[in-house]
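agent: user wants the structure for Ribonuclease Y from Mangrovihabitans endophyticus. delegating to structure tool.
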Amino acid sequence: MTALDWVLVVAIVVLAAFVVAGLLLGSRALKQIQSGRDERRGQAEDDANARVEVAKARIEDANAKAASVRAEAAAAKAEAAAARAEARRVLESAHEEADTILEHAHRQAESDAEQLRTAARRSGERETALINATAKEQAAEVERRAARIDERERLHAEEVERLVERERRLATVDGELASRESALAGREAEMAAAEESRRKELERVAGLTAETARLELIDSIEGQAKREAALLVRDIENDARSTADTRARHIVVDAIQRIASEQTAESVVSVLHLPSDEMKGRIIGREGRNIRAFESTTGVNLIIDDTPEAVLLSCFDPVRREVGRLTLEKLVLDGRIHPHRIEEVFESAKNEVDRLCDRAAEEALVDVGITNVHPEIAKKLGRLRYRTSYGQNVLKHLVETAHIAGIMAAELRLDVATVKRSAFLHDIGKALTHEVEGSHALIGADMARKYGESDDVVHAIEAHHNEVPPQTVEAVLTQAADACSGGRPGARRESLEAYVKRLERIEEIAGGKSGVDKVFAMQAGREIRVMVRPDDIDDIGAAVLARDVAKQIEEELTYPGQIRVTVVRESRVTELAR
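agent: tool returned. relaying C-alpha cells verbatim.
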C-alpha cells in the first residue's frame, strides 16, 4: 500500500470513531430520560428533546466530516492513480533509454574488441619477427663459439706437442747439469786444497796469521768505505740541496714577496693623553678614591707620574688593558669621574671592546676568505686582536700565515682552502692559554676538534710546534708558513739577554768540535762561520763537521727561521825570497 492509501484508511477509522461516539452519547441520553420520566416528565422530555437535538446536530456534523473525508479520499485516490500512471510512463521511458544505451555499449564493445584483436595481431607479428631474428643471431653466435672452440682445441694440441718437446730438452739439460756438477765438485775440492796451501805459504812468508790479516784488511776497507760514503753523502746532499733548496726558495720567496702586511710592536703598557695636567687630580679623586675604584673595577694598574698630560695603564691582559683605556678615555671626555660613574663606563667600554673583537674576527675571516667558522672560534679569534707574541700581533700573524700558506699550496697544487684554514687557526689556543692548562697547540687542537673542524686542520694545529709529529702536507706547510711569518726581519723582537745567550751557545757548539780554529756568528745569529785548521780536517771532514754542528743546533736551540752553518778550510803556504 502507498502512503496515500494509509492516509485514507486512517481518515475512515477516525470518522467511524466519531460515529460510534455519537451513538453512545445518544443511547446514554435516552436512558437518562427514561429514568427520570416519573419525577420530572415534562422537564425530562424537554431535556431529552434538547439532548436529542444536540445528538442529531453532532451526528450531522460527523456525517459532514465523513463526507469531506470521503471526498478527500477520492481526490487522494485520483492523485494516486495519476501518480501511478506517471510512474508507468517514466518507467517505460527508462526502459527504452536503457535499451538504447545497452545497444550503443554493445556496438562500442564490438568496435574496441576488433581494435584490440588488430593490435594483438600486429604485436604478435612483431614479436614473432623479433624472436626469429634473435634465434638467427643465437644460431650465428653458436657457430662462432664452435669455431673458437675448434681453434682453441687446435692450439691446445700444438701447446701439448711443444711441452712434450720441452720436457725432452729439459731431460737432456738435466743430464748435462749433473755431469757438470760432478766436475765442479772435483774442481772445488782441488781449489780448496790449493787455497789452503797458498794460505799456509802466505802466512809463512808474511809472518801473520789469517785472523790478524783479516782484521787489518777490514780496518783498511772500513776507512776507505767511510771516506767513499762521506763523498757519496756529500754528492747526494749537494744534489738534493741544489734542487730542493732552489724549489723551496722559489716557493717561500714568492709567498713572502706577495705578502705586504703591517707590523706593530705592542707592550704591556698603554699611554693615554690628557687635555691638561689638572685632569690627573680628578682621576686620583679625594684621598685616591677614584683611582682605587678604577683599578678595582677594571683590574688595570693606573700609573700617574710627572709625564706631562699623560697617564700610563699597565696590565698583562691586553683585552683588559684596552677596556681600561677606553673606560678612562670616556671618563676624561665626559668629565664626571666618581666610583659609580666608573662602573657604568666600564660596562659600556667592555661591550665596545667585545664588538671590536667580533668585528676584527669578521674582517680577518673575510680577508683570508674562510667561511663556516663556529661562532665560539670566531669569538676567540677576536680576542687575539689584543694579544702579541714577541711583539707580533697574533691575529695579524694568523692572517699573514694563512696568506703565505695559501700561496705555497697553490704553487704545490694542493687544496688551498684546507691549507689556509689550518694556517689561520694554528694559534687559536693562545686565546685560551690563561684559561686552560697545556700547550697552546694542543689546547687549540682540542678546541678545533670540539667545534667540528676536520681532522687535517686539527692535526696541523697540534703539530705546528712538533708536540705531535707532522703526518700530513697541511701540517708541514703550516709550520713553514708560521716560520716565514715569525722569522722575517722585523716581525718579532726578543730580549737582549736571550739573544746574547743564543749567540753564545751557537759559538760554543761549533767551538767545541775538534779541529775548529775560530767561530763567528753573523747576521744576528742566522749564519755561523766555522774556521778549521786545514792540517787537522780535510774536505770530507769539513762536510761532516758542518752537518754535525747543524744537527746539534737543531736539537739544543729554539730559534725562528733557519741557521746556516758554513765551514771554511783554507790552506796557506808562505815563502821568503832573500
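agent: one observation worth passing along. Residues 198 and 204 are 10 Å apart (CA to CA).
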